[in-house]
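Recall the central idea of this unit: under ordinary conditions, the amino acid sequence of a chain determines the structure it adopts. In this exercise we apply that idea directly, starting from the sequence alone.
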Amino acid sequence: MEALVPAFLLALLAQPADRPALLTAILADRFGRPITVALAAGLAHGVGSLLAALAGTAVGPTLTPEAQSLLLAVALVAGAITGVIRTRLPSRLDRWHFGPWLTPLLGVFVLALGEQTQFFTFALAAGGAPWLAATGATLGAVVVAFVAATLGEAGWTRLPLRWLRYAASLLFLIAGIVIGLGALRLTG
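Accordingly, the structure predicted from this sequence is:
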């Protein structure tokens, strides 16, 4: 359970401000099948989280416990920095004609590569319990995908996402600093 809850919470905080959630809302409107689009987006996040966890599993044994904590701190600080940077809107994938299942599956997978949630999952998996990290991150991303698909683009963009992004970034920064100082043994 060590990695499950943190991964879930990190994904839940990071996903609303990321482009995959907006793309999910856009595609749910386009295809008129929000449940199908949300399930496809959830699967895309699951595959991405699994890949991040596998990478973390490969790197984790080569790191000391302090280095594992420092990696998590770096992921959190990087997430805080990227969270305050305004991202451009995702492509609407208008030229993709793969249907309501394959378009969101491929589109969200490609768009989510290298996003905050995967970096968090990688760092948590390197610290141990990679399957719990992948599961937690996937569940958090799926919750956000279902909300985005249900609300659609108009409803999703009406949410105070900018303020949520700033609040999440502040939490990531504080947590990253505290964990980083602990990893460097600068706190008691």
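Residues 4-69+99-159 form one domain.
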